[in-house]
Amino acid sequence: MAYSGPFHEGDKVQLTDPKRRHFTITLTPGDNFHTHKGIVAHDDIIGAHEGSVVTSTMGTEFLCFRHLMVDHMLSMPRGAAVIYPKDSAQILIEGDIFNGARVLEAGAGSGALSMALLRAVGADGHVFSYEIREDHLNYAIDNVTDYFGQQPPQWSPRLGDFGEITTDDLDGPVDRVILDMVEPWHFLDTVRDILIPGGVFMTYVATVPQLMNTMEGIRELGCFTEPRAWESLVREWKVEGLATRPEHRMNAHTAFLVWTRRLADGVTPPRPQRRARR
Ligand SMILES: C[S@@+](CC[C@H](N)C(=O)[O-])C[C@H]1O[C@@H](n2cnc3c(N)ncnc32)[C@H](O)[C@@H]1O
Questions:
Q1: DSSP assignments along 202-265, one per residue
Q2: Which of 50, 70, 105, 252 has its C-alpha lying 20 to 30 A from 206's C-alpha?
Q3: Mean pLDDT of residues grouped by 10 in the chain (278 residues)?
Q4: 265 CA → ligand 1 middle, Å
Q5: Which residues are annotated as a binding site for S-adenosyl-L-methionine?
Q6: What is the CATH number of the domain that holds 109?
Q7: pTM for this predicted structure
Q8: Are residues 198 and 90 in the same domain?
């Protein structure tokens, strides 16, 4: 699929009307988009530059842009709750998802994180997405295929239990492991066994008890660095002259992120030094 350049057949295009309502269409030669504000011919958009304005038969103007990945993530059908873009952005950078990386994620859920990982690892990397529920895996496959226009060759969506994976299933260890499942602390042995020394492990948990169990489990296993935990809060602002202020509503809590790195085999993690109490 094309990410930029003039529109062509098959592109997903977002039309925005003067009331800022969005409509998404897939460009098909000879086809028409019908609204109560008139008809828009797909042929009027094919060949135009992104950011063009197309006018319906009733004179309404629509702004045309390609669907961005974030638009797709938030509008696609879901089997399971998705990782929100504010959090997948954190995972890509803090999880150090590099071009060419071999990454394993579980569960694949609706495929939102899979898309972000696939774009980041590029054609030379590989993403293994494990999912225990067939219906969820099908959502992930449909959503990812719909976004990329085909199933990416560097993607292995697999039906299976993360806890049963070995390096034999992956042709060797992976560079990064990302878990988004209810009880990740039950699967830390598997993370240890499939992650390369120095590899980054991140997990995404919604509640404080989950966070505590995960942090304690990582510490107890003794083969990871002292874990870090945080959450990301993103607050939009309304910027209009003297009325400039934060928006009233925000997606305040989604989940906590936990981060650690795999130590080399046989290494005992240095004890974290805590300040003495007075
Ligand atoms: C919240 S969803 C993941 C959403 C996904 N990260 C996304 O962005 O679309 C959690 C998924 O983990 C799956 N799951 C739970 N336990 C699992 C296991 N042991 N192995 C593989 N998948 C598992 C669930 O079936 C569910 O689909």
A1: EEEE-SHHHHHHHHHHHHHH-SBPPPEEE------EE--GGG-EE-S-------EEEEEEBPPT
A2: 70
A3: 90 94 94 94 97 97 94 92 96 98 98 98 98 98 95 98 98 98 98 98 98 98 97 96 96 95 89 72
A4: 29
A5: 110-113, 131, 136, 161, 180
A6: 3.40.50.150
A7: 0.93
A8: yes
